[in-house]
Amino acid sequence: MSLVDLLKSNSGDEWFQKIWEEREEKIYPELFGKLPETVIRLQEQALKAILGADAKILPEWLHYGVIEIAPNAHHADWLYITTGFSQPWNLDKEADLNPNGRSGTGIEIVMRTSERAGWAVDVLHRLSAYQIGVAGKTIKGKVFTCGDWMPLNGPIDPGTPNTKVRGILVAQPRDFPPDFSLRSGKVELLQLLGITGQELAYLLAKGPTSLEDVLYEQGAAPAINPNRESIELPNRFPLPKELQARF
User: pLDDT > 70: what percent of the chain?
Assistant: First the structure.
């Protein structure tokens, strides 16, 4: 059962359902091609792994998920995108909708890989739990925006334990629109790029856009490849000691 069908069966708020339908049945297919029938939903276990074993899990958090989209005419890679962040969970009635504001948290997150990758779903589930906790003030942190970066404190793909790709850079998509609008407000698309410690050092010295440009020039973006080495950088800089252990 898709999340749209699930919401239809569990909710009497037609306006709320229509927002979900607009995103998953109209906007996502127009941007990314045909969607699968199912969504890989965020599980309570994944939430508690980030928020804490005693965290109170709100029912709506279990409606967040990741959609896995196979290569098609819209993109040559496997594309993984969240759904749920742009749903206006905080509103109780249609009259409160503000099409000029942010819809829900105001973001959805994209990852891309050259091959089908279960680890991409896991990464997005973990980061979704983190973003849910931040937005709900359950844990400290910030809602992602372009230019942010984060160590993953381990390999991006546990199946590639020696990978040097152990962090992410949050960027705008370059081959898709950077945002879209729902009747409930505006939504920013955030694309995650995989980075190494050496690349993070360059980012800290030169800025995220400079690193992003070089990643694209050398084919290390937009698709994440856990098997790659650090790219050839115009300059090399030391990574701060406090970050070395996290990469």
Answer: 95
